[in-house]
Design brief:
mainly beta
Length: about 850
Amino acid sequence: MRWIWWAVLAVALLAGCAEQRPRLVVAPDRLELAPGEEETLNARLDGLTGEVVWHAEHGTIVGEGLTVTYRAPDYPVEDVVTVTSQDDPRLQAVARVIVSAGGELGPRLEVIGDQALVFTRVGEQRRFRVRVFDAAGKPLADATPTFASADPEAFSISEGENGEAVVTALNDDVQSVELVATWQGHEARATAVFARLQPDAVRLDAAWIRDAVWQDGYWSSVVLERTPETEALQPGDVFYSGDAAAVWGRVDAVELGDDTLTLIASPARLEEIFSELDYRAETPPLQLRASWRDGRLQAEAAGEVRSSHLERCPGLEAAPAGGEELSARAAVTLRVSQGSLQQGELRLFIDDSFSSAAELRHEGDEAACSLGGWRARAGRLSILLGRLEITLDSSLGVFASGPGAAIELPETGLRTRARAVLAYQNGVWQPRASAEQQAAPPAAAPRVSADDGGELEAGLEQRLGVELRLLLPGQDAYLGRVSYLSQLPWRLELPVATPGEAAYQGSRWELERRLTVEDGQTRTSEETVARSPRVWLETNSDPGRGTDLGSLASEAAVRFSFGSRPRQTGVAEVWVAGGACEEVEGCFDGELRKLGEAELPGGEVVWRPGKADRGVWVAYARLREDDLSQRYPYRAEPRVFVITGPDLSELPLDLTLRGRPGGPALGVLSYLNRPLFGVNLQGERVQLTSPLQVWIPANGISAEPASLTVPAGRRGYQQVSLECPKTARGQESSLHLYSNDPEMAEVILPVRVSCDAEPPQPLLVARPAAGVAPLAAELSLGVAGAGEKNWCRLDFGDGGEPLEWPAGECPRRLKVRHLYEAPGSYTAVFLIGDELGERALARAAVDVK
């Protein structure tokens, strides 16, 4: 078997030494494109050098050499592109192209030859040619379209054979008239134009043109067949061929060949060709609908639209929903009078209504991607010297930045009325654009679930683009692009703290509309479309005096009500922090105390505090209304309020009255309105005790005064008396005392009456009794009938330290000076008591201004 291995080795060596056969390869060799879409094709020669020739059965090859651009036809078809070696025509490579559309397929009419038929004399005739294709892009040879002229008295039209009609100019009015070819409800349009040429202008027949070179935006040389007409061309003449052949310029020199001549040319403007011209034409309106289905955008239009798939982008997952409706039309106007350009512009009118929602899952930081889009041809429009192709494209994108979150963006509507203008001046077309935009407020706030708080931005953007190209034989002159970038950013502020903390800032959101127009310059307009509701908290607590638990004129309750703009429904909560604090720190921050909640609209939270709740408080409102605020409630600005109240303190457990038989038995009821202080948010000391009101009804036992108001921190004194029986040594009774202290509204004190001694008689006079602060008052005091068991006390009535004398040392006569530093009404009291209690008193009023 060894000989077999030697044979195999010999064959391999011979194969390696043999010369490699030349071959031609094209890449890519299989394509799927949308109508009008372009793709680059590359040819490679292996084992051979030289040039190649490209050919497409339906599409257009732009360029030459080993690398060219293939432009798909504007209809669905299966196309074949062949590339052949010039040196060896046996070497060929084939690329197969499937041109498919996302829209409705159907028959299509295409203008063959000039789309604008230019007439310069009465009786002149030109042919309006169309070709009919079926849905697969195959010509229908037996199709017989009908033709019509919009103004038969200006241009008559007679139908011929093979999809063509003869158009005749009937008068010499400078004008333009629309021509229409129709078959089975589908149509193609052309324009008949009567114009006057400049004296040195020559129209070239397309059949004379052999070749042309486009360089730096104009035809630098044109090769023509030698005919009597072409041989008559001289330097200085201007020439044009119509919009199909699309060759024009000014002759600089003429080079003669055997059967051809070459024009060396320079640019020529429209007004150098026409002396009188009034050309107007427009495209049929493009109607397009697009919608999201199963994660991709599907667009529908008359066989001229391509949809793109949802893209994946790192850090952001998106599930869009929504749709788009667009209508667009283009109109061109070219007017020349007496050789001067009066008007030259192409106007594109776009009305685009767009609505979309999306579910996003954002991993954090910044992320953005495209969710898909469409591209559609809005039409081709003759500008006499060539044809403009207008292509629209739209894409939907999504973006997010900030902390990671799951976000549901509600549906938002956006309508854009865009205008794109291509202005012709000095032989050059310049684009400019403008737009008006309206955004519909969203039906709801976004839903957000985030692990961390902070600022989050997420939104949708739509980019609508208009691309303008001048279609030339074998060339592609890009004239410009305008774009309209519509962005709908949602800006959200998610709280870091919880709703039960004072530091909680609430969730806030804002939806903005931002439109950026680009046409060589960039212009941006912005407006706020919607924002989170503004919530506010109201309370019945008096801003100056607060809520006084001792008020007899109003309910001792704090009522909280809520407002919002726009008006909201949902549940409002009230949380508070504060009290009778000695320091600000730790008083109003930290965890809150929940008072209650109420249904909106119209509900309120009622708090009925007790004496233990006296203090300075801060109330916080939380509103849970929509999906976002269920997790992150909206917040109102906090309200500060004060709860005050009287504090009846140091009231004796019982009371003893002493007198002589048949005379008055006296006693003094004294008590303190105990002071309580807190601090406000600025750290200032605040008195939390309100005036104490006490009254004793006449019921056998009388009091003088019967009612008394005691300021905070001061003592109250009432002289109580009861007539002693003439024979009895004593008796027992009771005293009913009423106050505005909510916890001591009614007190019953046991009263023992001792009729065994004459009560002492105190005396007190203040001089001066009135004056301006600081006021030095002289208090003259004395007592008659005091015994060894009597003690005395002088209370100045301003909260200052009283003067006291022990039993047996009460002064008979004494003058005491006291300084009243602050304005106010004071009552000084000289009090005499014995071993059984306080017995009698004398008062002196001091009024300090």
